[in-house]
Amino acid sequence: QQQVKQSPQSLIVQKGGISIINCAYENTAFDYFPWYQQFPGKGPALLIAIRPDVSEKKEGRFTISFNKSAKQFSLHIMDSQPGDSATYFCAARGGNTPLVFGKGTRLSVIA
Amino acid sequence: DAGVIQSPRHEVTEMGQEVTLRCKPISGHNSLFWYRQTMMRGLELLIYFNNNVPIDDSGMPEDRFSAKMPNASFSTLKIQPSEPRDSAVYFCASSSPKPQGGSYNEQFFGPGTRLTVL
Question: Which residues in chain B are contacts of A101 at CB distance < 8 A?
Fold first, then answer.
C-alpha cells in the first residue's frame, strides 16, 4: 500500500513559469511533510519541510501548501529555472516511524 | 563534515555473486537507513537502525538481503546471491535524534551505490 501518492510523474515547465507537484496521504498520524530534491547521480537532499499546524511555508522561490482536511500538500516552484530541473520527492512521517516517500516527479525546466 | 559516505559508488557483478555495500553515517547521528531506488518502485526503505539496533527490516525483499551495523560509524548491506532484479541504486541515510518536543531532524542521504547485476 502506497502511503504517499505523488503526481505528476513528470513535468515540463517553461523557464519563468510555476511548477506544481502534488501529494496526498492517508495516515492521519503523519506530522512532518518534507520535500526532497535529487539531481542525477546524487542522493536526495532536503529542500523544504512543513508541519501540519501551518497551511503554508515559503523559502525563496519554493512554497509548500498544506491542506490538513484534504490530507494533501503541494510544492510550488515560482519563476522556475533550468537549474531546478531535478527529481522531487514528497515524504511524510509521524511518531517514531521513518520517512515514507512518494514515487517522485521528474521536473524539466526548458528555456 | 564529509556527509554520509558510501562505497563503492558503482558495482557491476554477475548473477550469483555476493555483493557488499558499505556506509559510514554522519558522526553523531544515531539513526541509519538503507533505501533502494528504481524507476518502477521509487525510493523503498529496506531497513533502518536506531543506536545500531535494527528496528524494522520489513522492507528487505528477501532472505538474500541482510544488513548489519556493528558500530555507530559503519553499516553494511549484503546481497547473497545477487540477481539481475537487484540492479538499482542503493542509498544510505542518517539522521540525529529528534529532540524532546522538537521537530524532526533532517535525514541526510549519501551519494548512493549503483549496482548492476548481469
Answer: 42-43, 45
pLDDT in tens, B31-60: 999 999 998 888 999 999 999 999 999 999
Amino acid at A98: P
Q: Closest approach of chain B CAs to the CA of A43, in angstroms? A: 5
Residue B102, phi then psi, degrees to nearest 5: -100, -175
Measured distance CA(A20)–CA(A74) in Å, rounded: 7
Question: Cell numbers 533502518 label which residue?
Answer: B48
Task: Give yes or no for a contact between B22 and B110, defined as CB atoms under 8 angstroms apart.
Answer: no
pLDDT higher than 60, residue A1: no
C-alpha distances in Å from residue B84, one per residue of A12, B10, B21, B117: 32, 15, 16, 5
Per DSSP, the three-state class of A83 is helix
Percentages of chain A per state (helix, strand, coil), in multiples of 5: 5, 55, 40
CA-nearest of B4, B6, B18, B2 to B107 is B4
Cross-chain CB nearest to B43 (options A42, A45, A89): A89
Considering just the CA atoms, what is the radius of gyration of chain A in Å? 13
